[in-house]
Design a protein that fits this description.
Keywords: Membrane, Transmembrane, Transmembrane helix. This is DUF3139 domain-containing protein. The chain crosses the membrane at residues 7-29. This protein has 2 domains: 1-30; 33-102, no CATH class. Helix content is 41%, strand content 23%. It has 2 helices and 4 strands. The longest helix is centred in the first third of the chain and has 29 residues, at 2-30. The protein is elongated, with a radius of gyration of 21 Å. It starts with a helix and ends in an 11-residue tail after the last strand.
Length: 113
Amino acid sequence: MFIIKKVVLSSIAALVSLIIIFLVGYVSINGVPYKKTQAAKQIKAYLITKKNYTEDEIYSIKGSVSKSSICRYGAEVTFNDEIGYPYEYGVCNDGEIHQQGYTSTTPKHLDDN
């Protein structure tokens, strides 16, 4: 009986360890979903309040994560007049939002920062 309990406890401990390793790996690659959602909300507010875009001009905003340690979370923004050419914005450690990239060869929405 003691041996069975020991085997069961060892199996549970191994399973818990594997789950923790999986979760740590997932978060290190994909980021924390909540933080991606928060970054998307911050960037939307930035575009509307600071850059004077209307909600109708924004086609989509999708939270993202980068390998950068300075601007780890951000969002991919697509504007209605450039569907298929997303712009990348990052929320940096200092709280500032910066446009970090774009895919269009003739971008219409370049930030001056």
